[in-house]
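Re: the multi-chain job from yesterday

Posting the exact lines I submitted so nobody has to dig through the queue logs.
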Amino acid sequence: MHNHRKVRLNIGLMGGTFDPVHIGHLVTAEEARQQFALDYVIFVPTGVPPHKASGQVTSPEHRYLMVTLAVMSNPSFVVSRVEVDRKEPSYTVETVRHFAETEAPGANLFFITGADAILEILTWKDYAALMQLCTFIAVSRPGYSLDRLRETAGRHGPDLLQKVHLLEIPALAISSTFIRERVALGRTIKYLTPEPVEQYIQKHGLYLNKK
Ligand code: NAP
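And the result, C-alpha cells for all chains:
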C-alpha cells in the first residue's frame, strides 16, 4: 500500500480591519490552524472597508505593518497586501477569487472572520460564487447567539450551512475597540497585543484621540 501524500494545501484567509490586531486575533488564527489542519493562515487586512466610512479607520499601511509585527514569530502565519494595495473598496469575493486564481490555485480555502461580518457577507449578492470558492469559519466569543447566522445560512439551503463552521474563542473578549479606548484613556495595553505592536502604537501616537 502506498502512503497517501497530501496534495492539496489547506489555507486560511484571516480577514479583518485589525485596527489594531490583538491577541484575540492571534489565538483565533492559531485555533483555526489546528482545528482545520491549515498549512498557513494568511492575514488579509482590509484596505478601505466597503462598509465603513473613510476617516473612521486607521490608514491601511499602519494596520498592515502592525499585523506584520504581530505574526513575525509564527512560521505558519503570513500577511497579504492584496486588499491594502487595492484603491477601491475591497469585497471578500474578489479577495478569495484572487487567492483561488493566482496565489493558491488548487488549495482548500477557508475564510476566517467575525461571525457578525460573515452574516453581512452572506447577504451580499455574490455569496453564491463565494460559496463555491471557500468554506467560512465564523468566530465569536462564548455566549454570542449564533441563531441569526444559522438562520441566514440556512435560508440558502443545507449546502450553505455546511460551508459555515462556528468557532468560539474566549480570548475574543478582547476587541480592537477595547484597545483603542484604553489607549485614548491613557491605560495600559501591555499583554493585550504583542509588544512590538504596542510599541508601534506608542511610536506613531495611534488611538490617542477617541474616534
Ligand atoms: P467588523 O464589523 O469590524 O468586526 C465584527 C466583529 O468581528 C468585531 O467584534 C471584530 O472584533 C470581529 N473580527 C473581525 N475580524 C476578525 C477576525 N479575523 N478574527 C476574529 N474576530 C474578528 O468586521 P471587519 O473587520 O470590518 O470585517 C471582517 C472581514 O469581513 C473583512 O475581511 C471584511 O473585508 C469582510 N467583510 C466583507 C464584506 C463584503 O465583502 N461585502 C462585508 C463585511 C465584511 P475586532 O474589532 O476586535 O477585530
